[in-house]
Amino acid sequence: MAKEKMSKREMLREKRRKEQQRNRLIAIGLIGLGALLLAFLLIFPNIQATRSIVLPAPLPRPMADRNAMGDPNAPIRIVEFSDFQCPYCRRFFENTEPALVETYVKTGKVYFIYRSMGNFLSDNIARASGTINSESRDSAMAAYCAADQGKFWEYHDALFANQTGEGIGAFSEARLRAIAQKLGLNMSEFNTCFNSGKYRQQVEQDYQDGIAAGVDGTPAFVITYTVKGETKTQMIKGAQPFSAFQQTIESILKEIGQ
Predict the structure, then answer these.
(1) Global pTM?
(2) Section 177-191 average pLDDT
(3) Number of helices (H), then strands (E), in the chain
(4) Could you give the 3-state DSSP secondary structure of residue 221?
(5) Which residues pair with 221 in a beta bridge?
(6) Edge-to-edge, what's the strand order for the sheet holding 220-227?
(7) 99: exposed, middle or buried (Cβ count in 10 Å: 0-12, 13-18, 19+)
(8) Residue range 66-80: average pLDDT?
(9) What is the pLDDT of residues 27-52, one digit of tens each?
(10) Backbone angles phi, psi at 132, to 5 degrees
(11) 226 — phi, psi (to 5°)?
(12) What's the pLDDT at 44?
């Protein structure tokens, strides 16, 4: 009788042991599945970001030097205040800039500089507080980081080519890194630059200088030149066609006697 009772106890213990073992295996399996799911969630967006990046045909930039191109001693200087999220800025990049570069930058008549205004919120309160859409700020910072590796304009072009809307993740950190990777940048150097916020102050300075110059929207082009020792300034606002730039530049060249 004792042996029978002992046998039942042992059977009960064995049953409990097996249940505990099964529960442990289930727990381990769930943990493993969770780890795989987490890895997938972390990796998949980066894979998707990389796959969706397109690189436009390269546009020759004569005498490119970081965010500038052309002869620094050219008689006319044009500073573009832009925003990588701005659809009108993209329109200028696609429809006007190539002809401007070919006709005036390449021929030594215009020195062209790109500066980022960033997509600051339009209401007065936001402007007063310096609120900025982070994707505009981050994309500008990333472009300046690319400049450290001699690829500002390549990154500039890739940003506009991959623009899909404002503040919707088109220039998330994952996509900004994916663009850098697609362009063949040294990712260790790029990440160090971007993560440190190395060019945050420069982006802020771009904005402040734009405001000081009277820029109230993007794109805007501040044109400076000198006539008989006097520096003059003009501004072209908006994504104007090449003809508008041509008319202004030809008029200035005539005024300075070139």
Answers:
(1) 0.76
(2) 96
(3) 10, 5
(4) strand
(5) 80, 236
(6) 68-69, 110-116, 76-82, 220-227, 230-237
(7) middle
(8) 97
(9) 787 787 766 666 445 554 545 455 58
(10) -135, 140
(11) -120, 130
(12) 45
